[in-house]
Amino acid sequence: MNLIGAFIRDVRRALRMNAHEIAEDGSMYIASARAFIGGAFSHQYTTPEGIVLPWTFDKPNRVVNEGLNKVLNLIPGHATSAALYIAPFSGDVAPPATWTGATWVAAATEFTAYTESTRRPWTTVASTAQNLTNAAALAASTITFAAGGPYTVRGAALAEASAKSAGTGILFAASRFDADLTGMAAGGKLALEYALAAIDESDA
Fold first, then answer.
1. What is the pTM of this model?
2. Given a cut of 60, is residue 12 above it in pLDDT?
3. How far, in Å, CA of 193 to CA of 135, rounded?
């Protein structure tokens, strides 16, 4: 029996028939595959004066359907891997599973008032413990708020396109932060980390 093939079939069927569940921690549970797939953002603000505030760890995000399909298609080689980028947003919205790379920018009101010219890269190393994170490359995923403000950031997304406000490529995940980040000032910095994990039900 091809176990990987069976897993892919089960998850695809669950997505098609809306037979998946969102667990209490926000991750997606596929009962037929007995697996959880989920991730979470965390962030740390540094004021313009250099005061570093504590890290804030948000509840698990939604891996949207488009992102789940990309993961599944990567396993048998039906899709090719692409770089992913972190993009903050300011909209007062809760991301649904149906958001895509073409729709999320307008729906979420992507936040672009930072000095870096593109969305911030999600730079990871190969997983050896069922998770991926950009914790070792946080400098690359930190934004510096542009002149103006004060600003409010309410969430973040993980998408393929690097250009700000781009509606191309796939959207992998999106999350509304547990609490709005208000009063973000010009010259302040916001480090954004994303961690993705997959776990079998028996290990949960």
1. 0.81
2. no
3. 6
